[in-house]
Specification:
This protein has about 110 residues and is an alpha+beta fold. The protein contains two helices and five strands, in the order αββαβββ. Helix content is about 20%, strand content about 25%.
């Protein structure tokens, strides 16, 4: 019998996040995002030149979907936001300041 794939839930969450954040008018639409699912199942999204990680986290926290619950997770990193999405740890990483005109001041 095969062992369960610890990254499986992370891949499913990444697919849903991609639809919400990058398709249509999502906050990362038009932004180049590096997405990866680690072997332990964590999902990491990194981007340059877009909105801050906090702004994207706030957008995700505003969704009300009982099948796709989103809750904040404390983070000590200034340019990261962490969430638990459908039971999977998601790290949002925006290593530079937000681009002017995105409605987000970014972080120094």
């Amino acid at each position: 019998m095969d062992a369960p794939d610890p990254a499986g839930p992370g891949r499913r969450v990444l697919g849903r996040l991609t639809l919400r954040l990058q398709d249509g008018g999502g906050p990362l639409h038009g932004v180049q995002v590096r997405a990866r699912v680690r072997e332990d199942g964590q999902v990491w999204l990194s981007w340059l030149g877009g909105p801050s990680a906090d702004a994207v986290a706030t957008e995700l926290l505003s969704f009300q979907d009982k099948d796709f619950p989103v809750e904040p997770v404390p983070s000590a990193h200034r340019r990261q936001a962490r969430l638990r999405v459908a039971g999977v740890l998601v790290v949002l990483d925006a290593p530079d300041r937000a681009r002017p005109g995105t409605g987000d001041r970014g972080r120094a």
